[in-house]
Amino acid sequence: MKTEEKITMKRIEKIENEIEKVSKENKKMEYTNRMYGLLNGEEMPNSRHPEDLNDLCYVINKNLKLINDGIKEKTHKEGLHQMLFNLLLDR
Prior knowledge:
The chain is mainly alpha-helical. The protein has one domain (about 1-90). It has 2 helices and no strands. The chain has helices spanning about 1-40, 50-90.
């Protein structure tokens, strides 16, 4: 009987972890959609809680970091290509 209880408890724990993971993903997607809505001119409701605003700021900052990293990578690659091109021209 104890073995069945342990198996059941492990299954419950696994399902709870999956629910938590999906819940976090849904919240992230909700704030990402909110961010894009604000960028498209939607109004921010006045009834937002401070923790909601903190979560929205987190998503915005994370996306800004991704954009900045992409820009740095692109400019680094373009700079490298330009440098190689200049070396080939000097020959």
